[in-house]
Each structure stands twice: as C-alpha cells, then as structure tokens.
Amino acid sequence: MEAEIKTIYQSPICTVQNFLCQCKECTTSGVEQTGHFSMAYIRKGSFGFKVYRNELEAYSGLFLICKPGFDHRVRHIHDVPDQCTIFSFAANSVATLTQHGSTLDWFFRDPDIHAILVKATPEMELMHQLIFNELHKPRQQHLWLEQMMTELFLKIISAEDERRLFPSLSNKQKIHYLPAIETIKTFMYDNYATNVKLSELAAMAHMSPFHFSRLFKKMTTAAPYEYLTHIRLKQAQLQLMYSRNTVTDIAFSTGFNSLEHFSASYKKHYGKSPLATRS
C-alpha cells in the first residue's frame, strides 16, 4: 500500500501516527504486518481489512483494533483516499489499560480473533477530534492531551455491544454519503453552541431532511439531534473539569436554552449533576 505515515506524537502511553493513503487505484495490498497493538480511527474513506479468512468492512467513524504480529491485506473499495489516526501501544501499556476492566476481554483472550471494529460513539468521535486538533498545534498541552487519550482508550475498550454487525454500506453510500456525513459531523464539532436546524444540515449534505436524518442515524447510530446533544454535553463536561466558568455560563455556551434543561440532560447522561463533576 502506498501511504504517507507520519509520527505526530510519542509518549510512554502511546505513539500516534497520521496515515494518509496515496494509492491511485482500487487494488489489494501485499501482505503487511501490524507490529504493535493498535487502535486506528478511520477519519475518511473505506476499505476491506483482511486477516486470514476474515475480512472487516472498515469505514469512517469506526475504530479498527488490531493485535500485533498478524499478517493482513487491505482491499481498496474505491478511489476515495483513506485517512486514519493510528494509536500504537507497547505491551505494558495494553496490560495497564485492560486492568481497568474491558468489555473486550473476549477479544483479548481469543487467539483466533486478530482484529475487530468498534463503532465510535459521538463522544468518542469528539474526543478524537479534540486530540487530533491538539496534536497539530505548535505547542501542545501534554497533560491535558494524555488525559484525553487515556479516557478515549478506556471508552473504546469498554464500548457496548462490540460484536454486533455494523450497517453494510453500498459502494454508492461509501463514495457519496460517508463524506457528506463526515462534513456534517465536523460542522457540529465547530458549531455545537448554535441553534442548528435539521433543514440546514440536510441542505449542506444535499439531501432531503428525511433522507439525511435516516442516513445520519444509520451511519452514526444516533439521530442528528441526539448526536449534537452528546457533543454539547461532552464539551460542557470538559469545561467543568478544566475551566472556572460558572455552571450557568457553561450551559449557555454549549448550546442549551436553560440551566434546568442542561442540568437534567447532564445528570441523565453522566449520572451526576454538573456541580458534582467539580467536587
């Protein structure tokens, strides 16, 4: 496979690489091998990831988790270049993570399963976006960055219902609709505090509101409003943890119309009140 792979961060926790596919044709790669345990977030594109007799249908919005030491091939489905953020771990780091408990125990224990896909939640996708943006700043907040990465990794290995089948997407959906959905998600990350309308998002994706809403939920497992609410709640949690802004200011700055609505939504999602997050 032709690709530009650049290491953008190294620490005892993990090594982070930016993977940019450079292939110009839809082909199948030669045999490749994963050297370390890795979690790759697929930012753009789709591909078939074949390990022995199993082939995973990988596409944007999924985490591809691979054990080290196994041969694989990558099959390009179309000419949309793949882009991934690859987090690689030393064996001791993986052991430390799994000590905290994992719903992926079955995967770690089974020697016949070498790679799996985990569907990213809205919260995971936002955290990846924040981490990725921070990694490209001239000066990085290392403590904040490594806390965010650790939280993200723990969420991934504790994700619910990992073995379910993900939606099977047609080539048309992969080529035309996945990029549109990724554009809308990025818009939500950047404009979560605004009063976004479904019709506006649908127009950006060049779809009818009904078609857009149905496809968005199929590809993200959350309706557009639910997805946006999760982004707002995570942004609010981060402000509660890392700023001195008042709860009222945080509520309105993250797009909620009232303190009461914010507090109720926050407690329902995180199991405790906004003030309890700071205690």
Structural write-up:
The chain is of the alpha+beta class and 279 residues long. Helices cover 45% and strands 22% of the residues. The protein contains eleven helices and ten strands. It has a six-stranded antiparallel sheet with strand order 1-2-9-4-7-10. Helix 3 packs antiparallel against helix 4 (142-157) and helix 6 crosses helix 7. The N and C termini lie far apart (50 Å). The mean pLDDT is 89. This is HTH araC/xylS-type domain-containing protein.
How are the secondary structure elements laid out?
Blueprint: E1 3-10, E2 15-21, E3 32-33, E4 37-44, E5 46-51, E6 54-59, E7 62-66, E8 71-76, E9 83-89, H1 91-98, H2 105-109, E10 115-119, H3 122-135, H4 142-157, H5 171-190, H6 198-204, H7 209-220, H8 224-242, H9 247-253, H10 259-270, H11 274-278
Antiparallel strand pairs: 1-2, 2-9, 3-8, 4-7, 4-9, 5-6, 5-8, 7-10
